[in-house]
C-alpha cells in the first residue's frame, strides 16, 4: 500500500483500509507507519502483557493487549501495550472481545524503538490522557528509564530501583530494574 497519498483521508476512511504490517496510525490527519518491533521491544512488550495478565485476567480485573488499535477522538493509534480495566472492555453479544476499540486505554505503554520520534510517541500518550487514560509509560531501553505520565501532572522519570506507578486495580509491583532485567533471557 502506498502510504503517501495525495488525497487526505478522514478517520472513518482510514479505518476502512486493510490492516498492514507494520501497523499504520492516523494522527492529525496523517497516516504514519509504526516501527516494526525488534528484539528488545518485543521482549519487553510480551513480558509486560504477561505480568499484567497473569495477575488480573482470571479475576477479570484488567487485560493487557499488545498492538491493539484504539480509535477515539480524531486519531487511530496502536499502543505497544493497551491495558483496559475489565468493565470497560465492551464485549460482543456473544461475550467475545470486540474487534474495534473506540476508546482510550486505561493505561497506555509505549516502548521507544530506535527509528521512532520520541515526541510523536509521547504525543500519543498525552493524547490518550486527554481522552481518559489514567496512566502512561514511555519506556526507553537505551537509557533504562521509564517516563511516567498521570493526568494533570508533570511527567516523572523513573530509574533503577524506583517502584513504578500502577493502576490501583492492578496489584502489581515492579521496579524499573525489574522491567529492564527482562531483556536478559532467562530472567
Describe this structure in words.
The strands form three sheets. The chain has a six-stranded mixed β-sheet, with helices on both faces. Strands 1-2 form a two-stranded antiparallel ribbon. It has a two-stranded antiparallel sheet with strand order 4-5. Mean pLDDT is about 90; it is low at about 1-5. Helix content is about 25%, strand content about 25%. The chain is of the alpha+beta class. The chain has four helices and ten strands; from the N terminus they run H-E-E-H-E-E-E-E-E-H-E-E-E-H. The protein is globular. It starts with 10 loop residues before the first helix and ends in a 6-residue tail after the last helix. Strand 9 (about 145-150) and strand 10 form a beta hairpin.
Any chance you could write out the topology, listing elements then pairs?
Elements: H1 11-16, E1 24-27, E2 30-33, H2 39-56, E3 62-66, E4 70-72, E5 75-77, E6 81-85, E7 107-111, H3 118-130, E8 135-140, E9 145-149, E10 156-159, H4 176-181
Parallel strand pairs: 7-8
Antiparallel strand pairs: 1-2, 3-6, 4-5, 6-7, 8-9, 9-10
Q: Structural class of the helices, strands and pairings?
A: alpha+beta
What fraction, in percent, of the residue positions are helical?
Answer: 10-25%
- Spans of at least 5 consecutive residues with low confidence: 1-6
Q: What order do the helices and strands follow? A: HEEHEEEEEHEEEH
How many alpha or pi helices? 4
What radius of gyration results from the CA coordinates? 16 Å
Strand content: 15-25%
Cα distance, first to last residue?
A: 40 Å
Amino acid at each position: 500500500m502506498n502510504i503517501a497519498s495525495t488525497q487526505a483521508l478522514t478517520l472513518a476512511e482510514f479505518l476502512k483500509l486493510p490492516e498492514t504490517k507494520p501497523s499504520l496510525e492516523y494522527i492529525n490527519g496523517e497516516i504514519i507507519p509504526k516501527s516494526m518491533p525488534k528484539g528488545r521491544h518485543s521482549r519487553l512488550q510480551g513480558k509486560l502483557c504477561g505480568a499484567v495478565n497473569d495477575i488480573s485476567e482470571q479475576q477479570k480485573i484488567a487485560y493487557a493487549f499488545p498492538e491493539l488499535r484504539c480509535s477515539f477522538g480524531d486519531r487511530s493509534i496502536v499502543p505497544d501495550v493497551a491495558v483496559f480495566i475489565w468493565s470497560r472492555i465492551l464485549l460482543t453479544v456473544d461475550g467475545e472481545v470486540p474487534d474495534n476499540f473506540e476508546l482510550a486505554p486505561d493505561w497506555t505503554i509505549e516502548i521507544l524503538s530506535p527509528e521512532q520520534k520520541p515526541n510523536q510517541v509521547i504525543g500519543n500518550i498525552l493524547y490518550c490522557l486527554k481522552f481518559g487514560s489514567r496512566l502512561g509509560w514511555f519506556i526507553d531501553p537505551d537509557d533504562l528509564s521509564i517516563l511516567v505520565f498521570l493526568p494533570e501532572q508533570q511527567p516523572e522519570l523513573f530509574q533503577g530501583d524506583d517502584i513504578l506507578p500502577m493502576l490501583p486495580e492492578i496489584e502489581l509491583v515492579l521496579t524499573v530494574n525489574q522491567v529492564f532485567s527482562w531483556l536478559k533471557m532467562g530472567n
